[in-house]
Write a structure and sequence with these properties.
Chain lengths: 928, 418
């Protein structure tokens, strides 16, 4: 009977998995489908595909595993994604039967697979989804040296009585090569029946096996092992060692305690404590104390009190820490009573512990220790009182401010800063009793809590002759005032002879009105400013600068221009404090007008930083920063410019920074800028970017450079490969049709104009903006009627144009005609008019938007111009076809005059210099 | 007469090469002044070398399984140091007071526990441990042997906190004041000033390579499963493999998340729900992700957005009564003035030598460090399983998910155990 069943089983397996051609084809399709979509990016796809995979049953698993290559023989990642995905999917709660089927399929597959890494892979999958069904199939791997590791780990993960049974069985028969895998599995499952065998295996030569055995005994053992593990610990001199004997002994004591062997454990632990004490192994003493206190709990008070007399702080603190588990009122009292006679260090330990426990019972005793002469003890007491948080402690802590020692005052101040509740009342009440340092601290604390109601206390201190106290009072002032103090403060500012207070008074005035409307602020200050004595007006500049108003800004600039000496300095200072970006231009003008001015450095840095952190468009910032770079005087100033360039995070900025990569002063900053911008912008993939990044890899030099190089390499490896130099020549057809090349791929001999920004490279005419800030590139020849063909490549938000029938001077869009070239998909251009789209006759005839290729790819364009008839074809699509005369008969769309619209002939030109663009394969055919 | 230690050292130093006196020589119960503490560094590649100049201690020993790393790191130190191949020899070195662990994360748990057994204090790199189970054991060992532990990230107590442009303390104060309301949602993303370093992705296919002569690959792997050698595993790029770390999440996770845990006051608990939106992860190689959302039982959320995911004008912290944006911009009118009524956050112990001397826990220790590392590990488990998980923060187990619970512990290759 038995025999027949197994034959039937075999037949059914064969039928199901080998001969069923139809299902096999279906499975193949499913597998191919799954593999082509690995890895999935969304959980809906994941769940669907894994559901499909589950439905293929054993067959799918076999097919996938069949695709696994041995190490080095090919990429398995898709199959690994599919199989681990399957395991994860069926391991989810509620998929029990699918899990079991998959697990069984893996087990069957193990029989067929021969390659070690693939088998190990499958066994690791079972580690997640295997249960009892895979125990027998896994058993034999417990005898295979190369696979017993993962097999034993998987069996112990299953953690059922059957898995224990198998491990026990194998322990008695395994060869020594696999013992090392089986013993820890037994330890993990704490198989008590293994103890005799484990004990009998002890005493071999393999130190690793000895370590495993001791470890396993500590997890499975009974009191039978106690003595043997004690000897192992003794051999290790009660500390850590390669064999782990000491640790094993301690772990066994814990285990026996859990098993209820209190008496035996207590006796053994006292012995351990003595041994460890004699050998001065502090960590083992602590471990023994831990066990004893776990046993004795409250009954262990004497152990704790004895520990508190120990010279070793580790031991004292451990005792206190362990007693937290059972401490009660009585024990607190006993421990607190030690505070009266213990040595200073022990007092510190006890106070620290009471703080951690937030124990209110000891507040008075701790308060008494606060004003000790021992700073460390006072520190501990202050922190403990803070943690306990009783408001009655505030007066005691405040007393620390009476100390003449700065450390104690600092301690009092730091503690009060964090103290919950009203600290101000006590500070004000006692301020006259404080030491000088204490009075200063008190005013700092009042300021920190912005204690307006105690302003008078601070004002009184302004009258003292002690300059240190007076300074502190001025420092506290700005945080403590409100609107009602405005007049008083202005009065003080104008009439005080106390120059140490000027800046703080100004700050206080600014704060007093800070929450008012701009108009209100302006009128209040202007009225003070206007009525102030001429010699005092300058005191208000900086206050004025806190008002964000163009009038006020102009006023300060006027004052700067017409005054001298202190007043001029004050006006300049006020300008640097002005918050709005409008001031940047004013400061830059100061720099530009006079490079030798004493104000240059500060004006330069302030304006550059302001522009960098303003919310202007990146491209706009770049124009300013480029100009700033031109007038920068020092290396530091140039570095500052580059830092702000980086913040614009634009393509322009990346290319601009690239210009300084060979400048040794700026090389590292330039490299960082290029790297940071490139890594943040995956769309910047042009060959210049690659070239620059490769150069950055070479020059980077800082502690993180290795990481950074790694990041750049990964970034580069993810970039699309873009076509390299194409040969520039006419096709046969074009030559026959009469086209001529306007650019041979190498030089700009056929062109006139801005050859600084436009350069010939790699078969292209490339525009690198901001080298010269100006000028277009024009053909030498003039053309009347023609077909003009070219390819172009844009960068984000790039703006250029093709001028036709244009003179060499003036804005070609008006003095000739401009066919727009624009990345009109860029978000900044979302509100364009149709007559500004790419391909439009700018301002005159709109074009159809939406036919540009993705950024970075080459576009092909043809411009047909015959009399008034203009036609533009982009990538094979006609995007504009119109008559300029017709279009302009009722005025142009942009309502601007276009005097050049009907020029008979003129130059062709590339218009623009603000953004990087490339052109290539430029050819023209003149027509009648 | 008491000898002035500093003077003593100066004199000795002036005569000849400075010999550091380790604590054990000074006798029982004697705690050396901070400038006499010594350290040994395990793992002296890029990260470990950063530990050499860390304050308060002097290097006396180094260890690496790569002979080249070991040789070049020794040159960075003027005085002679002991050089070890097996980290256990460094741990057993009586001259070493503090053991610094700067290896890949799959070693952190084993090494920290071994060091604790030897009675050393520990300064450990982030992420604290590769699994939640290992983290639990580290906590137990520190407690059992009375050790001090500091995790090597620091934003909860010093330095500008990435895109916030401010140290954490004022953020903590603002949240603690309740002015933003409750519960809070925190978004960690490039839009709020954080970079998840997605360049730490592994390769899904690695050709086996010859193991270089200078490297003990078996010891490098240690408790991690045996896989054929490829240099991409063992260089800095190790971060891209689940066997050793968790990609950018592993690298930056504790730097970014630990301060949030502190700000939210969640140092003693963990999220109860973890949701992921991510491409399927390879079983070996860590990949990228869109978002990982951690929810606490009171409704507070920590949301991680990868790379370009999410919306740009997002607040960093959002509560029912107010928002905080990157650069510490808060939308509550006159918030600075209102905030002045509240106390500053409690002072923390921010010097590890002080912690070692007083035996009081360091600001970022094995307990709160375990919790913030658990967030990282919860995230990586949810990513790997590609599903929503529910977690019990007290039992430290997933609810009703056997497979997820199996990932709480990673089986260790022999002879390593914890």
């Amino acid at each position: 009977m038995k025999r027949r069943i197994s034959i039937t089983l075999i037949i059914s397996i064969v039928l199901a998995f080998v001969l069923s051609g139809q299902t096999q084809r279906l499975t193949k399709t499913t597998i191919a489908d799954v593999l082509s979509q690995m890895p999935t990016h969304r959980s809906t796809d994941f769940n669907k595909l894994m559901g499909d995979l589950v439905s293929t049953g054993d067959e799918g698993v076999f097919m996938l595993l069949n695709l696994m290559n041995a190490p080095g023989q090919g990429d398995n990642s898709k199959v690994e994604f599919a199989l681990s995905g399957l395991s994860n999917y069926v391991s989810a709660p509620g998929k029990e039967s699918q899990r079991e089927n998959t697990s069984k399929a893996y087990c069957k597959a193990l029989e067929i697979i021969t390659e070690r890494e693939t088998k190990a892979f499958v066994i690791r999958q079972l580690q997640i989804i295997g249960r009892d069904e895979c125990l027998n199939p896994l058993k034999k791997y417990l005898f295979e040296e190369t696979l017993c590791d993962p097999a034993a780990a998987t069996i112990s993960s299953i953690s059922t009585p059957q898995s224990k049974q198998i491990l026990l069985e194998v322990l008695n028969s395994a060869n020594s090569k696999c013992l090392k895998a089986i013993i820890p599995a037994i330890a993990k499952l704490q198989i008590i029946e293994a103890e005799p065998k484990l004990l009998s295996l002890l005493g071999g030569n393999d130190i690793n096996i000895e370590k495993e055995l001791l470890y396993a005994l500590s997890r499975c053992g009974s009191d039978l092992s106690l003595n043997i593990l004690f000897k192992a610990a003794e051999k290790d001199e009660f500390t850590m060692n390669m064999s782990g004997g000491n640790e094993a002994y301690i772990a066994l004591l814990h285990r026996l305690l859990l098993l209820g062997e209190q008496k035996k454990v207590e006796k053994a632990t006292y012995k351990l404590l003595n041994k460890a004490t004699n050998l001065n192994k502090i960590q083992t003493r602590i471990a023994a104390l831990d066990i004893l206190l776990t046993i004795k709990k409250k009954g262990g008070l004497n152990l704790v009190l004895t520990a508190l007399k120990d010279p070793n702080p580790e031991y004292r603190n451990a005792a206190l820490h362990f007693s937290s588990d059972f401490v009660n009122r009585d024990i607190y009292e006993k421990i607190i009573s030690q505070l009266s006679h213990a040595d200073e260090n022990t007092k510190i330990d006890i106070v620290n512990w009471l703080g951690v426990q937030k124990e209110k019972m000891a507040v008075i005793q701790i308060q008494n220790l606060l004003n000790s002469q021992n700073l460390n003890l006072s520190k501990a007491a202050a922190l403990a009182l803070l943690k306990i948080g009783d408001e009655n402690s505030i007066p005691v802590i405040t007393k620390l401010l009476s100390s003449t020692k700065s450390e104690f005052v600092a301690l009092g101040k730091r503690t009060l800063l964090s103290f919950k509740g009203d600290i101000s009342t006590e500070l004000v009440k006692s301020i006259l009793n404080f030491s000088e340092a204490g009075q200063i601290a008190a005013m700092e604390l009042l300021a920190a809590r912005k204690s307006h109601q105690n302003l008078n206390t601070v004002l009184e201190q302004l009258n003292t002759t002690n300059i240190v106290i007076r300074t502190a009072a001025y420092n506290a002032l700005p945080a403590m005032i409100s609107l009602e103090n405005f007049d008083m403060l202005c009065n003080m500012l104008e009439n005080s002879n106390d120059s140490i207070g000027t800046v703080k008074l100004q700050q206080a005035i600014i704060n007093a009105i800070a929450n008012q409307s701009v108009e209100d602020m302006q009128s209040r200050i202007l009225s003070k400013f206007n009525s102030a004595d001429t010699t005092k007006k300058y005191l208000y500049y900086v206050v004025l600068a806190s008002v964000n108003s163009q009038n006020v800004l102009n006023l300060i600039v006027d004052e700067f221009n017409k005054t001298n000496g202190i007043a001029k300095d004050a006006a300049f200072n006020a300008l640097t404090m002005y918050k709005d970006i409008a001031v940047a231009e004013k400061l830059f003008t100061i720099c530009k007008n006079d490079a030798s001015t004493v104000y240059f450095d500060k004006a330069f840095t302030t304006s550059v930083k302001m522009v960098g952190s303003s919310n202007m468009k990146g491209e706009t910032k770049m124009i300013f920063l480029g100009k700033a770079m031109d007038i920068a005087k020092t290396k530091e100033q140039k570095i500052e410019v580059l830092k702000q360039v980086e913040k614009t995070n634009t393509f322009l900025a990346l290319i601009y920074a690239g210009k300084f990569i060979e400048d040794l002063d700026l090389q590292q900053t330039s490299a960082n800028t290029i790297m940071n911008i490139a890594l943040k912008n995956k769309s910047y993939t042009s060959s210049e970017v690659k070239k620059l990044l490769n150069r950055v890899i070479e020059v980077l030099n800082n502690p993180d450079a290795d990481y950074q190089r790694q990041a750049i390499k990964l970034h580069l490896s993810g970039m699309p490969i873009i076509q390299e130099v194409v040969e520039t020549k006419l096709s046969d057809t074009e030559r026959k049709e009469g086209y001529e090349l306007l650019f041979d791929g190498k030089n700009l001999d056929e062109w006139l104009g801005n050859k600084q920004d436009y350069i010939a490279e790699n078969g292209c005419i490339s525009v690198y903006p901001s080298q010269s800030f100006g000028g277009n590139l024009y053909t030498k020849k003039e053309y009347e009627n023609f077909i003009f063909r070219f390819e172009f490549q844009l960068t984000p938000a790039a703006n250029n144009g093709v001028g036709i029938r244009t003179p060499l001077e003036g804005d070609a869009a008006y003095v000739g005609m401009e066919i727009q070239v624009l990345d009109d998909d860029a978000p900044v251009y979302k509100d364009l008019n149709a007559y500004q789209y790419h391909g439009s006759v700018y301002g005159v005839i709109p074009s159809k938007r939406g036919f540009l290729k993705p950024l970075g790819e080459w576009n092909f364009e043809e411009i047909y111009a015959h009399g008034n008839h203009i036609k533009v074809m982009l990538n094979g699509i006609v995007i504009l076809d119109g008559d300029v005369k017709e279009a302009a008969k009722n005025g142009t769309m942009d309502h601007n005059p276009h005097p050049g619209l009907f020029n008979k002939k003129g130059h062709l030109g590339f218009l623009g210099h603000g953004s990087p663009v490339k052109f290539r394969n430029i050819r023209i055919k003149e027509i009648d | 007469m008491t000898i002035d230690r500093r003077k003593f050292i100066k004199t000795v130093g002036a005569i000849g090469a400075l010999t550091l006196v380790p604590r054990h020589v000074l006798g029982r119960g004697y705690v050396a002044p901070s400038d006499q503490l010594t350290k040994g560094i395990i793992g002296v590649g890029g990260m470990g070398c950063n530990h050499i100049p860390y304050d308060g201690t002097r290097v006396v020993a180094m260890c690496d399984v790569n002979k080249k790393n070991l040789a070049s790191a020794q040159k960075l130190v003027k005085d002679k140091v002991s050089a070890y191949h097996d980290f256990r020899d460094l741990i057993l070195d009586k001259n070493v007071d503090v053991v610094h662990i700067a290896t890949p994360p799959h070693w952190h748990g084993v090494m920290a526990i071994e060091a604790a057994k030897a009675g050393k204090d520990i300064w450990c790199e982030k992420p604290m441990t590769r699994t939640i189970g290992e983290g639990k054991r580290v906590m137990e060992a520190m407690n059992q042997y009375g050790r001090m532990f500091r995790l090597n990230t620091w934003f909860r107590f010093k330095d500008t906190f990435y895109g916030l442009g401010t140290p954490v303390s004022p953020l903590k104060k603002l949240v603690q004041s309740g002015m933003l309301g409750w519960p809070l949602k925190v978004v960690i993303s490039k839009h709020t000033g954080f970079n998840w370093k997605f360049y730490w992705v592994g390769k899904e296919y690695l050709e086996p390579q010859l193991i270089p002569a200078e490297l003990d690959y078996d010891m490098w792997l240690g408790p991690a499963p045996y896989k054929p050698y490829n240099s991409h595993r063992t260089q800095q790029t190790f971060r891209g493999y689940w066997d050793y770390d968790a990609g950018g999440l592993g690298d930056m996770g504790q730097h970014f998340i630990d301060p949030v845990q502190y700000i939210l006051g969640k140092d003693d608990t963990s999220p109860v729900k973890i949701e992921v939106d991510a491409p399927q992860q390879h079983p070996e190689a860590c990949g990228v992700w869109n978002s990982i959302t951690f929810t606490y039982d009171d409704g507070c959320q920590i949301i991680l957005w990868g790379e370009d995911f999410g919306v740009s004008d997002t607040p960093y912290i959002e509560g029912p009564k107010g928002k905080v944006y990157s650069n510490f911009i808060c939308d509550i009118p006159d918030w600075q003035r209102k905030l002045a009524d509240y106390p500053e956050p409690e002072p923390q112990i921010t010097s590890f030598t002080e912690s070692i001397k007083t035996r009081q826990k360091f600001a970022l220790n094995e307990i709160n460090g375990f919790r913030s590392c658990t967030i990282v590990n919860l995230g990586s488990i949810a990513l790997r399983l590609n599903r929503t998980l529910h977690f019990d923060p007290n039992k430290l187990e997933f609810i009703n998910d056997v497979a997820a619970n199996l990932l709480l512990n990673q089986p260790m290759r022999q002879p390593w155990n914890i």
